[in-house]
Design brief:
Distance between the termini: 76 Å
Structural class: alpha+beta
Oligomer: single chain
Largest sheet: 5 strands, antiparallel
Radius of gyration: 22 Å
Strand order of the largest sheet: 1-4-5-6-7
Length: 155
């Protein structure tokens, strides 16, 4: 009987420790296989049905172009990187904006300067662990959520 109590107490302690530790699913890859090219509507909003994202780009337009309506009718490039950050840019942009998920919003994490004159023909690709930014044949950069990597800076 004493052995049973001892074993039972050990099992109870193990269950208590397991139930107190937070549940975590590891080795998750969030990246989208290809960028989404989205047209901004007349209300300055985008909608990506495939990945269930809707966002108002008015603040982004004001930040990048100094005009909250500047993106209406234009295309933007949106790619979710492998670590879950959202990379956003488009034609005429001088920056790539990196956002992270927050409660009910995408919060700006980093603004990466990529072109002094503005991108002419941008495209983004997954190159884990990086996001590759191309602008025609003129530029190829490898991006992380914090900026441009040394190895990708080929300008």
């Amino acid at each position: 009987m004493k052995n049973w109590s001892s074993a039972s107490a050990g099992l109870g302690l193990s269950l208590l420790l397991v139930s107190c530790s937070p549940l975590a699913l590891k080795d998750v890859h969030f990246g989208w296989p290809v960028e989404s090219v989205l047209t901004v509507n007349e209300q300055s909003r985008i909608e990506e049905r495939r990945y269930s994202i809707v966002a108002d780009l008015t603040p982004l337009a004001a930040e990048e172009f100094g005009d909250s309506t500047a993106l209406r009718g234009k295309e933007i490039r949106l790619l979710r990187g492998d670590t879950g950050y959202y990379f956003v840019t488009g034609k005429g942009f001088k920056h790539v904006y990196v956002f992270s998920l927050a409660e009910g919003e995408l919060a700006l994490t980093t603004t990466i300067p990529v072109s002094e004159r503005g991108l002419a023909s941008p495209a983004m690709n997954q190159r884990p662990p990086y996001v590759e930014l191309l602008d025609g044949k003129e530029m190829r950069l490898l991006l992380t959520p914090s900026g441009v990597t040394e190895e990708g800076d080929t300008q």
